C-alpha cells in the first residue's frame, strides 16, 4: 500500500521513542515539541525523523552516541535558566556526547558570551552558533550522515545534491563564527576533515597543518 508524504509525516509525529535506546537506522530522533517546526521541515527534506516525548532534556539525536540541545533566541534574550539545568543533568548522566546549538543573532550577540562560558568552560560541552532553524537543520543533517556513515565523506558522497548544498553552506556559516577563521580557512577545514565531527575530533597538530598554529588554537578554544 502506498503512503503519501503527508500520511508518513503524520505517523511520524505520533511516534514516541525512548531516546536511551539506539536510534532507528536512517532516522534522526526529534523531541515532539519540534513537530511542525521549520527546522524539522528542513530535516525531512533529506532525512526521515522519529519523534519522542519522554526525555524533555534532549532536543535531537542525530546519531547513537550524540544528543543535541537547542537554545533558541527567545531563551537567550529572556536569560532563562531552564536550558542550563537540563544541560547540567545531561552532563552528569554522562551517556551521550552533548552538542549545544545556540541561536546567535543580532538580538542575542550580547548574551552569547555568557552561554559560551557556561557551556564550554564550565561544562566542557561543544557549542555551535546557528543563525536560524534552517542553519541548524543543515548541521543536524551533517551530524546524522557523519554519525551513521563515519567511513564516508558526506560531502563527496552527496556531491551535487541538495543535501550537500544545505549542509556545506550551513557549516561554512558556522565555522566563520570562529574569530579570525575566514571563509578560505573554513573551506580548507571542510575539505580536509569533511564534517563538524571531523573538525571537533581533529588534533591540534592536524589542524595546524591545515590552517596554522594560531588559527588551530582558536578552533580548539572555540569547539572544545
From TrEMBL:
<dbReference type="InterPro" id="IPR041663">
    <property type="entry name" value="DisA/LigA_HHH"/>
</dbReference>
<keyword id="KW-0234">DNA repair</keyword>
<feature type="domain" description="Fanconi anemia core complex-associated protein 24 pseudonuclease">
    <location>
        <begin position="24"/>
        <end position="143"/>
    </location>
</feature>
<dbReference type="Pfam" id="PF17949">
    <property type="entry name" value="PND"/>
</dbReference>
<dbReference type="GO" id="GO:0003682">
    <property type="term" value="F:chromatin binding"/>
</dbReference>
<feature type="domain" description="DisA/LigA helix-hairpin-helix motif">
    <location>
        <begin position="178"/>
        <end position="223"/>
    </location>
</feature>
<dbReference type="InterPro" id="IPR010994">
    <property type="entry name" value="RuvA_2-like"/>
</dbReference>
<dbReference type="GO" id="GO:0036297">
    <property type="term" value="P:interstrand cross-link repair"/>
</dbReference>
<protein>
    <submittedName>
        <fullName>Fanconi anemia core complex-associated protein 24-like</fullName>
    </submittedName>
</protein>
<keyword id="KW-0227">DNA damage</keyword>
<dbReference type="GO" id="GO:0043240">
    <property type="term" value="C:Fanconi anaemia nuclear complex"/>
</dbReference>
<dbReference type="InterPro" id="IPR040646">
    <property type="entry name" value="PND"/>
</dbReference>
<dbReference type="Pfam" id="PF12826">
    <property type="entry name" value="HHH_2"/>
</dbReference>
<dbReference type="InterPro" id="IPR026985">
    <property type="entry name" value="FAAP24"/>
</dbReference>
